[in-house]
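ok new one. same drill as before - structure tokens go in, u give me an amino acid for every spot. 182 of them this time. try not to just spam alanines like last time pls lmao
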């Protein structure tokens, strides 16, 4: 059912969504019992940065993200702090996600806004990206997956507050599919 021509979007945070407190607890257990290398052994790399990032990503949460995309045909816009202003870093993030089972490419990346006096809300960055996209394409639907609730009031119907204890759950998947397929 995947259709690249749709104008449906996921705004994706990574920390708290594609990993969780439970995941980090599991990885700590693996470290204490010297089994991290066995878990990551299927990845043929000597790059410590790649191994470190792989260590941070929960395969189950990534599989759940794939389920949303497969059920809706949506495109992924990276809104996470894992994004960078340097395109090469975003390619690295996408590469690491693919090593953990992510099947798709990023469609876009939200801009980084920073106000010296008071910071910025992620919702503002998402809105800026949507305003720019609307000049090219109509936005059919969107969903925001994040464990922080710094969204704009008008985004709240499209926002799923992911519980960072568990990461992207089955319930979150169902809610996202429902929002995107309205």
């Amino acid at each position: 059912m995947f259709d690249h021509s749709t104008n449906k979007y996921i705004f994706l945070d990574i920390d708290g969504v594609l990993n969780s407190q439970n995941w980090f607890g599991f990885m700590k257990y693996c470290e204490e019992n010297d089994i991290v290398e066995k878990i990551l052994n299927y990845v043929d790399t000597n790059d410590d940065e790649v191994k470190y990032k792989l260590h941070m990503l929960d395969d189950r949460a990534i599989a759940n993200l794939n389920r949303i995309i497969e059920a809706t045909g949506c495109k992924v816009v990276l809104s996470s702090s894992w994004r960078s202003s340097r395109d090469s870093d975003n390619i690295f993030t996408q590469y690491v996600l693919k090593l953990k089972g992510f099947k798709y490419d990023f469609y876009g990346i939200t801009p980084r806004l920073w106000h010296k006096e008071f910071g910025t809300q992620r919702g503002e960055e998402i809105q800026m990206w949507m305003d720019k996209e609307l000049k090219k394409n109509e936005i059919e639907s969107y969903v925001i997956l994040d464990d922080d609730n710094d969204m704009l009031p008008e985004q709240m119907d499209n926002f799923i507050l992911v519980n960072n204890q568990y990461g992207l759950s089955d319930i979150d998947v169902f809610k996202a599919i429902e929002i995107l397929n309205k």
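The helical segments are 21-32, 36-40, 48-55, 59-72, 87-99, 122-134, 170-180. and btw The longest helix spans residues 59-72.
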